[in-house]
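Exercise 7b. Backbone tokens:
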């Protein structure tokens, strides 16, 4: 809970908390909305896309979902709040709070730091004292490439493979929301539709994106790009999936986009090799919607907060200490340059 407020962020798993009047949701991923159900009756503040998903997928009553605009200062219970694009999944927002005691707090939720954030007028115009930071990859080994580089590699690889064998079915792994940039790039380079389950199709419609709406279909046979849950990208499951479309395809290439696939042996995307079993290939591609270590460092050194509170990997004392050392080193470097 923030000083002088009755606010919490992404804290639904504890149920209704005594003394809390407003619950903010940064984005629609289950580790952030866990505990939020159709029977929830407390006020939830989020942006339109996240609100659409909360109402559609969780069936939370509309009267409890308060939609806040992006990039616009609003007043919630006497506290000024601004939502900023977090460059994570669709609807993901960073929350900038101006507290009654004069403190300014930025909560990143889950985010992928990008130099474009250094041009956000809302951040340029204020001094952030406390930063709640997404520390998913706050360790030096996580130095994966920029998103666009990975998207370009994935699209060009897919194009080459389909050119060599037009009877190749492409599969992209996804979460409930996320990885859209990857499968849209695959669809665009092939001029194909994207095949989705009915449930996934309904989820995508909540994103209010015309670009996505024009690409997606529930008719699997009308699409050369299929989207499946990340957990289903195993050789056994993909073999079964390909068998359903044997009249059209005799080979399947899957792309598994996640930062966890990265290793220090891979110096560039060109070094990525697929795992192959028979006519099935699986590419683990280092596409992440969280910040790499160096992106975190740059963001922190630009923002120069007085205090940093990590929000991920905080379960062990050693992990917290290692992150605190990083933060201290980053800010010391910045001060030394002044």
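Sequence design result:
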């Amino acid at each position: 809970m923030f000083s002088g407020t009755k606010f919490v962020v992404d804290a639904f798993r504890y149920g209704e908390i005594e003394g809390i009047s407003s619950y903010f949701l940064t984005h629609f991923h289950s580790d952030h909305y866990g505990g939020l159900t159709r029977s929830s009756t407390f006020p939830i503040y989020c942006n339109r896309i996240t609100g659409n998903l909360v109402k559609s997928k969780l069936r939370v009553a509309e009267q409890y979902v308060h939609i806040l605009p992006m990039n616009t200062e609003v007043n919630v219970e006497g506290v000024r709040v601004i939502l900023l694009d977090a460059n994570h999944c669709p609807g993901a927002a960073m929350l900038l709070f101006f507290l009654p005691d004069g403190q300014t707090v930025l909560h990143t939720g889950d985010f992928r730091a990008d130099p474009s954030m250094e041009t956000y007028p809302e951040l340029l115009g204020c001094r952030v004292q406390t930063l709640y930071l997404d520390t998913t990859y706050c360790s030096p080994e996580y130095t994966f490439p920029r998103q666009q580089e990975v998207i370009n590699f994935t699209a060009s690889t897919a194009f080459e493979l389909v050119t060599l064998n037009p009877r190749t079915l492409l599969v992209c792994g996804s979460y409930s929301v996320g990885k859209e940039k990857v499968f849209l790039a695959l669809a665009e380079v092939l001029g194909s539709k994207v095949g989705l389950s009915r449930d996934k199709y309904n989820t995508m419609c909540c994103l209010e994106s015309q670009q996505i709406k024009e690409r997606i279909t529930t008719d699997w046979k009308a699409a050369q790009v299929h989207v499946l849950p990340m957990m289903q990208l195993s050789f056994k499951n993909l073999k079964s999936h390909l068998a359903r479309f044997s009249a059209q395809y005799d080979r399947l290439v899957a792309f598994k986009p996640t930062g966890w696939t990265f290793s220090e042996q891979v110096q560039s995307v060109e070094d990525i090799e697929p795992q192959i079993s028979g006519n099935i290939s699986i590419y683990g591609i280092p596409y992440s919607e969280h910040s790499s270590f160096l992106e975190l460092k740059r963001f922190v050194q630009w923002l120069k907060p007085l205090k940093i509170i990590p929000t991920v990997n905080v379960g062990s004392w050693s992990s917290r200490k290692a992150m605190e050392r990083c933060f201290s080193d980053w800010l010391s470097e910045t001060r030394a340059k002044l």
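Instructor comment: The domain at 7-140+291-337 is CATH 3.60.15.10 (Metallo-beta-lactamase; Chain A). The longest helix spans residues 317-337.
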